[in-house]
Amino acid sequence: MFRLLPTYKGRHLPKSLPSFRTRLELYSITATCAQLSCNGIENENKEIDFEILFNSCTKTQQAKNLHALLIVAGKAHSIFIATRLVNLYAHLGDVSLSRQTFSQIREKDAYTWNSMLSAYVRNGHFHESVKFLDEMLSTSEVRPDFYTFPPVLKACGNVIDGRRIHCWISKLGFEWDVFVAASLVHMYCRFGSFAVAHKIFTDMPFRDMGCWNAVISGFCQHGNAVEALSVLDEMRLEGVKMDSVTVSTILPICAQMDDMLRGMLIHLYAIKHGLEFDVFVSNALINMYAKFGNLGHAQVVFDHMVLRDLVSWNSIISAYEQNGDPITAFQFFGRMQLNGVQPDLLTLVSLASSVGQTGDFHNSRSVHGFVLRKCWIMEDVVIGNAVVDMYSKLGIIDSACNVFEDLQFKDVISWNTMVTGYAQNGLASEAIEVYCMMQKCKDIIPNQGTWVSILPAYAHVGAVQQGMKTHGRVFKVGLHLDVFVGTCLVDLYGKCGRLNDAMSLFYEVPRTSSVPWNAIISCHGIHGHGETSLQLFRYMLDEGVEPDHVTFVSLLSACSHSGLVDQGWWCFHVMQEECGIKPSLKHYGCMVDLLGRAGNLEIAYNFIRSMPLKPDASVWGALLGACRIHGNAELGKLASERLFEVDSENVGYYVLLSNIYANVGKWEGVNEVRSFARGRGLKKTPGWSSIELNNRIEVFYTGNQSHPQHEAIYMELEILTAKIKSLGYIPDYSFVLQDVEEDEKEHILTSHSERLAIAYGIISTPPKSPIRIFKNLRVCGDCHNATKLISKITDREIIVRDSNRFHHFKDGICSCGDYW
DNA sequence: ATAGGGTTAG
User: Fold this and answer.
1) Mean pLDDT of A250-268
2) For the ranges A227-241, A423-437, A678-692, which has the lowest average pLDDT?
3) pLDDT given for residue A150 in this prediction
């Protein structure tokens, strides 16, 4: 029967020689055909059973081969066979082949048209399906029947199309078919036309489970959970029992409404009524328990499943990924592959997110490569966004940016992800730039996520004016009272030195979660108002808000900025004994900072040695910083040795150590550290300060003379220096870290970036108006002293935020009381 | 050979 092959030609034959694999498949189908044909084609009286061939096709190529075979066998023109082919291609996901086959059929009946219609719907080509229905209605070839309408009702994307189709249904008299009516009800509910839906529903002469479910799921898809539940109650009052469809519709609602009890009761119901082993029900249960953070229950449901499909595997993988256990998520992915289940787009979304959490560089490339090979990045934004997010979480911001730029279609979330990516990698100005580009896209409407990504970027560079403009926009849409947006605003005002504004906003946002509390506690902390932070913490406890690990980081660093050693110990104790939170490295770092800054260097060192965790760079770095403040070169050397064992790449620490040596005049030590750092290819982070004027951020680098007004700035600085000298200012050369002559030292001090920014502020703003400065590094002690006096002679408030905290200078004193 | 209502997402 392989005689069939030479005649296997025509437009369906592939142009090039089929691959070995394809040929194998071709032969196997041909062989089956041959077997059948022995008593089939040769014996004209018997029909070949093509059923088995249709059922054996699992890939488009196989279907094409079968199609070719059918042409050769002269069967393809049978309307029956041709319609089956339309369906086969549709099931395999290739609508264009369905359509091609459809067009080649000369005389089509309602079956054929209906099949093509559902081919579109099944593959998500909703717009085409509605157009196709119009085509069908305007042809005289066939008349639609009640199989025609349900799929297209499911497809229509707006209520206008829905109404149009409803008219046709009424005209043709199919309105009271149960399936058609259920589809109508569902469609109207989806678009929120509950009155119409309800009318059809109550007028129905006969209602089956499908109708009830159509109403309930219609409400759910419209986001109306409360209505959905009330229909459910109504249904139960009428004595109708929930089936597996009802249960799997309602379980996600329980998760959405955070109603664990109801969810568990429905789980019990499912067990009692034997719905437990329905794949949809089990999958919905896994997802629900995952959303409640109850991985144990999710796991039990998964383990008890007899049959698992792709969604089951995706659900358990995402359950672990979303609950912070990416390692287990990956293990399940491995098991899934061992079970021969092929991953889909959603699997890869979870994997990308898992990689983002583990920081696994190697797997990030695998995930990206896999997605590229499958061409999924072109098909769906979601996976593209997930990859962008993955790269930015790994800090590979260039790759993130490349993927982002290559996205064919970008939605709000793509933009938000990119803005957040830059912001969280410390690249606030790039984040702002991307946000500006986004605003130029007319079809992108910012949402809550947009504000949550851009506001921290503004806070980071101190762009309070732009931040306030955003506040206005947020206010217009009522999102300023959203916990997350509200907290970002609190943080913005706090970090931009407007504590009063931060406080009044704080009182407006809902305060039942720890999120806004953490922000306001931290804001008072960096302003040196440690006592206020502690007071807020007490209020928080009084209001019954449960503190989390972030709360204690904010509190401990607040204590540290204000030198509240005893209170810090108290917090450290409360955290463990009363809140049951195990201290993390961050908490230990804060404690070392607190003790060290207060001058208890020995205690800090012993504290580190008694830690149950292996100290990381931030812990040793805190000790090193304390040694710099208190001029302890000996312990500093020890701390730096431990420090470079765990992190030898951070320039900041080399600078600190060399500063310690410079401070005590050990210039050979300075040179040693510098050449060591240079040998590792590390360059000192240049210091800069910025000031926001007229919605623009101006940046000054230390010693920079390229500013258009630099002459005026230096002249102003000379005048200021002369004035403050008359008030008793003596330059403190211990902050000059170069081994140079005295007059050179004075020049170095006066051209520190913060002084340039302050002088610029003084000559560019009206007298007595406050000046707000940002500095990327810590303010040096000499500048601190000088700024105090400048605030006095110019009668201005000068607010300087450095990498560590706020300094509020007024009338010759600083809010930090020289403790910084 | 065709039909309604169901589970996973950045």
Assistant:
1) 95
2) A678-692
3) 94
Estimate in Å the CA A110 to C1' B4 gap, whole number: 19
Do A503 and A404 share a structural domain? Answer: yes
Same domain membership, residue A404 and residue A385: no
Note the pLDDT of residue A21. Answer: 40
Q: CA A125 – C1' B3 distance (Å)?
A: 17
Q: Which nucleotide is nearest to A182 (CA to C1')?
A: B4
pLDDT, chain A, mean: 87
| CATH code of the domain covering residue A478 | 1.25.40.10
In a domain, residue A81? The reply is no
Q: Which nucleotide is nearest to A409 (CA to C1')?
A: B10
CA of A314 to C1' of B5 (A): 23
pLDDT at site A49: 61
The predicted model gives A798-804 an average pLDDT of 87
Are A595 and A712 members of one domain? no
Q: Are residues A380 and A403 in the same domain?
A: no
Question: Residue A289 CA to B7 C1' — how many Å?
Answer: 13
Residue, of A101 and A14, whose pLDDT is higher: A101
Does residue A740 belong to any structural domain of this protein? yes
Integer Cα distance of A506 and A540 in angstroms? 12
What's the Å distance between residue A369 CA and nucleotide B1 C1'? 40
* Structural domain contains residue A87: no
Q: Which H helix or E strand runs over A809? A: strand A806-810
pLDDT of residue A179: 92
Residue A429 shares a structural domain with residue A380: no
Q: Is A450 (CB) below 7 Å from strand B? A: no
Which residue is closest to B1 in terms of CA–C1' distance? A84
Same domain, A720 and A797: yes
The Cα–Cα gap between A186 and A388 comes to 36
Strand B positions within 7 A of protein Cβ atoms? 1-10
Residue A489 reports pLDDT greater than 70: yes
Q: Is the pLDDT of residue A668 over 90?
A: no
A514-539 mean pLDDT = 93
Distance A245 CA to B3 C1' (A): 17
Counted domains in chain A: 3
* Alpha-carbon A310 to chain mean position: 24
Backbone angles phi, psi at A769, to 5 degrees: -80, 150
Q: Residue A768: give the domain boundaries.
A: 706-814
CA A756, A757, A760, A766 torsion-angle sign:
negative
Query: How high is the pLDDT of residue A48?
Result: 54
What confidence tens digit (pLDDT) does each residue in A185-236 have? Answer: 999 999 999 899 989 998 888 888 999 999 999 999 998 999 999 999 999 9
Nearest nucleotide from residue A417 CA, by C1' atom: B10
Measure the CA–CA gap between A812 and A716, rounded to whole angstroms: 19
Residue A311 pLDDT greater than 80, yes or no: yes
- CA-to-CA distance for A286 and A297, rounded, in angstroms? 8
A 10 A CB-CB count for A59 gives 14
pLDDT given for residue A252 in this prediction: 96
Same domain, A488 and A539: yes
- Asked if residue A555 is part of any domain, the answer here is yes
CA of residue A453 to C1' of nucleotide B3, angstroms? 46
Strands A806-810 and A771-775: unpaired
Q: Which of A577, A610, A643 is the last residue of a domain?
A: A610
Pairwise CA distance, residues A143 & A133, whole Å: 11
pLDDT score of A14: 30
Top-confidence residue, A135 or A462? A135
A771-775/A813-814 β-pairing: unpaired
Domain termination residue (choose one: A550, A580, A610): A610
- Residue A772, SS3? strand
Cα–Cα distances in angstroms (integers) from residue A159 to residues A83, A150, A212, A227, in the given order: 31, 15, 20, 19
Chain A 97-116 residues in 7 Å CB range of strand B: 109-112, 114-115
Q: Are residues A349 and A337 in the same domain?
A: yes
